[in-house]
Structure prediction request, 172 residues.
Amino acid sequence: MHIRGLLLCLVLLMSSLTPALATMRISEDRGGQIGHYLESFALLRSSGERVIIDGNCLSACTLLLGIIPRNQMCATPRARFGFHAAWMPDVDGRPVTSPMGTQALWNTYPNSVRHWIKRHGGLSRRMIYMQGRALAGIVPNCSSPQIRARSEHGNTPRRLRYIPANAASDRQ
Prediction:
């Protein structure tokens, strides 16, 4: 827990030192505790920093779809979002679906994402993936003319990886 606190402090410190036109790249993010992602993405949203999704954004990482404004993010062809129901460990450490956590996820997602999730079976223990055309309808492509024009400010994206204590995608 102390390491997680130190990591969150480091992220907060780094976000306060970076200019508003900076860019953060998310790749291979397996998710973690919902509360940590809600806090981190709220800070990221208020910083004005652009977000590039360039790989897997799974589990709690998908909350960025409801927190970061659409005009502040883009996705590369490698981007892939993975959705599932929230879970918590029981007394023996086994994953148990969390209705309250799942509702928190659901309430955060924009209507377009909720509609896509419903069409693909809803939030359950099984991970469902959004990528390609489906994702392009929700998150702008990084190669679109508007995105390229904003990225020509010479800012090098910084890569941020969350180190979750309980990545929901670790277990089935």
In short: The two ends are 24 Å apart (CA to CA). The helical segments are 2-17, 34-47, 64-67, 99-108, 111-119, 132-136, 145-151. The longest strand covers residues 23-26.
